[in-house]
């Protein structure tokens, strides 16, 4: 048993009226002890559920991120025309709507806006299909690449993906607790702010509830992050919805924080969000989009791709971003990016 961890557990788990938030240093220490398994399983499970009940603060999230930075993997800085966009989505996947992250990564990288994502296998509590499986369907198995090989692929194609079980096994070691406590722990919130990239980044985080975005703002301010985007996206992801107004937070050194609301009907994209399908079926639908063929998934990709091309600095306006996304897809340039990615990754996969 860790006596040091027990004191931190007492602080967060002493009840509604007497519990106290951890300092940034204490949150970092608690996270390190959990990652290193210095705390016992009973202590880790108790901490996770007590911390969830009390809810984390932005200061605590900053401390947890400090621990991830200390113990976790880091992709090194690459030469790029734009900062690397880190697309952070819930690790436990989706249950209702189709994920756009792989298509957005390919589209942005085609426009010289590099993208890094991270995640693991099927994970509690939602147990949705993980992004790694969609990438496998597209011919890229990130789980077969070492961190150094992911670095090489990022440098050569502008796309990288960190796979928890092999690239951050310490964090993967905490996944069973999610199933055992039956709830997302605050770690699941913190992961939406984690950037496993050492260079200049544009952090994009999805959220569901407004208080979560407020925690995001506090944590990233403490961490010195000034270039970020927060999206009230589909199922907590970075994907802009088509059935409702998109609520977005914009952060940049020159503007501070600004609120942006986008109405899809104003741009001709109002409609139903694409429903989640079995992975093989959805992979085929993604390939149809990459072939430039019209579909509801293409409409969702253009709506999202146009926004992110503008937000990442590739286009001067949202309207120009939408037109550029359409051009890149219909002219086969995004499909060529997938082929370039396959060409870069396949020999590394086979050599694993």
UniProtKB/TrEMBL annotation:
All residue ranges annotated as the Glycosyl transferase family domain in the record: 97-332
Annotated Pfam families: Glycos_trans_3N, Glycos_transf_3
Amino-acid biosynthesis found in the keyword field: yes
Domain of life: Bacteria
GO terms of molecular function: glycosyltransferase activity
Keyword annotations: Amino-acid biosynthesis, Aromatic amino acid biosynthesis, Glycosyltransferase, Transferase
Residues in Glycosyl transferase family 3 N-terminal domain copies: 6-68
Name by which UniProt lists this protein: Anthranilate phosphoribosyltransferase family protein
Source organism of the structure: Stenomitos frigidus AS-A4
């Amino acid at each position: 048993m860790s006596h040091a961890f027990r004191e931190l557990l007492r602080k967060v788990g002493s009840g509604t009226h007497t519990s106290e938030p951890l300092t940034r240093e204490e949150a970092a220490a608690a996270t390190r002890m959990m990652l290193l398994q210095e705390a016992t399983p009973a202590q880790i499970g108790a901490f996770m559920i007590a911390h969830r009940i009390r809810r984390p603060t932005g200061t605590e999230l900053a401390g947890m991120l400090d621990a991830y930075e200390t113990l976790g993997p880091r992709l090194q800085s690459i030469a790029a025309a734009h900062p690397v966009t880190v697309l952070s989505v819930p690790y436990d996947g989706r249950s209702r709507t189709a994920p756009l992250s792989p298509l957005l990564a390919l589209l942005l990288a085609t426009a010289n806006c590099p993208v890094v994502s991270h995640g693991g296998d099927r994970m509690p509590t939602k147990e949705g299909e993980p992004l790694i499986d969609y990438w496998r369907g597209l011919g890229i198995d990130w789980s077969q690449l070492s961190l150094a090989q992911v670095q090489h692929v990022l440098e050569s194609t502008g796309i990288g993906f960190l796979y928890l079980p092999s690239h951050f096994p310490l964090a993967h070691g905490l996944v069973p607790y999610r199933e055992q406590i039956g709830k997302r722990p605050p770690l699941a919130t913190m992961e939406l702010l984690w950037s496993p990239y050492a260079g200049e980044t544009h952090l994009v985080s999805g959220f569901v509830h407004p208080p979560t975005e407020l925690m995001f703002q506090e944590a990233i301010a403490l961490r010195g992050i000034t270039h970020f985007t927060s999206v009230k996206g589909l199922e907590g992801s970075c994907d802009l919805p088509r059935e409702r107004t998109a609520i977005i937070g914009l952060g940049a050194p020159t503007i501070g924080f600004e609120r942006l609301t986008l109405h899809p009907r104003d741009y001709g994209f109002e409609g139903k969000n694409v429903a989640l399908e079995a992975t093989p079926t959805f992979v085929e639908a993604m390939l149809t989009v990459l072939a430039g063929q019209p579909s509801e998934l293409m409409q969702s990709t253009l709506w999202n791709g146009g926004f992110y091309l503008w937000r990442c600095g590739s286009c001067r306006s949202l309207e120009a971003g939408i037109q550029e996304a359409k051009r890149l897809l219909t002219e086969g340039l995004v499909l060529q990016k997938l082929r370039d990615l396959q060409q870069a990754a396949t020999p590394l996969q086979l050599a694993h």
